[in-house]
Write a structure and sequence with these properties.
With 81 residues, the protein is mainly alpha-helical. It contains 4 helices and 2 strands.
């Protein structure tokens, strides 16, 4: 995977914070994060941390949980402090 999951998810979470939104359509959030409306990468990252990707919308809560798990995995593997 070309993206570091914790950085990618942090970027997505920041978008939620800046817009003060609770939900985003999958294509909209994906396009804001990496310029591509295809949400496959974000779905794969979320699924990697044991969370079932949504059908139509990402919620702030889901992205925050995935980010927390990504940071924990990075810490355990020695990639982050």
């Amino acid at each position: 995977m070309k993206h570091k999951p914790h950085i990618y998810l942090t970027r997505a979470l920041r978008i939620f914070e800046l817009t003060r939104r609770k939900r985003f359509a999958k294509a909209a959030l994906s396009e804001l994060v990496d310029g591509d409306p295809d949400p496959v990468v974000l779905d794969m990252i979320i699924e990697q941390f044991g969370i079932k990707p949504p059908k139509t919308q990402y919620s702030k809560k889901m992205i925050a949980l995935a980010r927390k798990r990504a940071l924990q995995c990075a810490k355990e593997s020695g990639l982050s402090d």
